[in-house]
């Protein structure tokens, strides 16, 4: 879903994903970072519904 311009303007912008992730870790609430399709910077959001969290890559099959 495309970010509304009015939402983008109100949010804090981060130049890279690492800066946004560091800010999310310091927050009291559970936040995740995302790249905005309007300004191409990174923002933080607390929304999780419908978002997949990548599973760690298993290397067990390599050992066989």
What does this structure look like?
With 64 residues, this protein is an alpha+beta fold. It has one domain. Helix content is 31%, strand content 12%. It is built from three helices and two strands, in the order H-H-E-E-H. The chain has a two-stranded antiparallel ribbon. It is elongated, with a radius of gyration of 15 Å. The chain starts with a helix and ends with a helix. The model has no long low-confidence stretch (mean pLDDT 83).
Major sheet summary line: 2 strands, antiparallel
- Helical residues, percent: 25-40%
Strand order of the largest sheet: 1-2
List the secondary-structure elements in sequence, H or E: HHEEH
Q: Tell me, rounded to a whole number, the average pLDDT.
A: 83
Number of strands: 2
**Helix-strand category:** alpha+beta
Quickly count the helices.
Answer: 3
Q: Approximately how much beta-strand content do the residues carry?
A: 5-15%
């Amino acid at each position: 879903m495309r970010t509304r311009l009015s939402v983008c303007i109100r949010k804090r912008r981060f130049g890279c994903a690492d800066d946004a992730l560091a800010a999310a870790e310091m927050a009291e609430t559970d936040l995740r970072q995302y790249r905005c399709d309007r300004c191409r910077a990174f923002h933080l959001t607390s929304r999780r519904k419908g978002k997949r969290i990548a599973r760690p890559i298993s290397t067990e099959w390599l050992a066989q």
